[in-house]
Write a structure and sequence with these properties.
91 residues, mainly alpha, 6 helices
């Protein structure tokens, strides 16, 4: 958990307060999970890594790959909202 990007931690703790009070126990447990497809997550990690290494061209390539996944809406893509949030963090 300590090596997860902050955006995934946000995904895990995205509901607080009154919102939680109106959920069943099953819904509360589900809300504590963060799930994302491997390919978009790998591209997001590449984006972060190349940014930290100051390799701007490779960082932009990773971001372009993430954008392509979001814009094409691959039929087998699960958790599209999480992928949208990853893209939003990258732009």
């Amino acid at each position: 958990m300590y090596c997860a990007p902050a955006i995934l931690l946000f995904e895990m703790y995205r509901s607080v307060g009154v919102d939680v009070a109106h959920r069943t126990i099953k819904e509360r447990i589900w809300m504590d999970w963060a799930e994302v497809d491997a390919r978009p997550f790998m591209l997001y990690l590449q984006y972060l890594t190349f940014g930290g290494l100051c390799e701007r061209q490779r960082q932009l390539q990773a971001l372009q790959g993430l954008w392509n996944i979001c814009s094409n809406r691959v039929r087998s893509l699960f958790h599209p909202e999480t992928v949208d949030h990853l893209l939003g963090q990258g732009t």
